[in-house]
Amino acid sequence: MEATLAVSTVIFSLRASGSFGADERERSIWLPLVRRIRAPHDGMWALPGGPLGEREGLAEAATSTLAKTTGLAPRYLEQLYAFGSPERSGEDAERVVSVVYWALVAEEEARAARIGQNVRWFKADELPRLAFDHNVIVDYALWRLRNKVEYSRIASGFLGETFTLAQLREAYEAVLGRPLDPANFRRQIEASGALVDTGQVLTGVRHRPPRLYRYNTTVDLAEQGPLGRTAEK
Amino acid sequence: MEATLAVSTVIFSLRASGSFGADERERSIWLPLVRRIRAPHDGMWALPGGPLGEREGLAEAATSTLAKTTGLAPRYLEQLYAFGSPERSGEDAERVVSVVYWALVAEEEARAARIGQNVRWFKADELPRLAFDHNVIVDYALWRLRNKVEYSRIASGFLGETFTLAQLREAYEAVLGRPLDPANFRRQIEASGALVDTGQVLTGVRHRPPRLYRYNTTVDLAEQGPLGRTAEK
DNA sequence: CATGTTTATGTCAAAATGACCTTAAGTCGA
DNA sequence: TCGACTTAAGGTCATTTTGACATAAACATG
Question: pTM of the entire structure?
Answer without folding.
Answer: 0.93
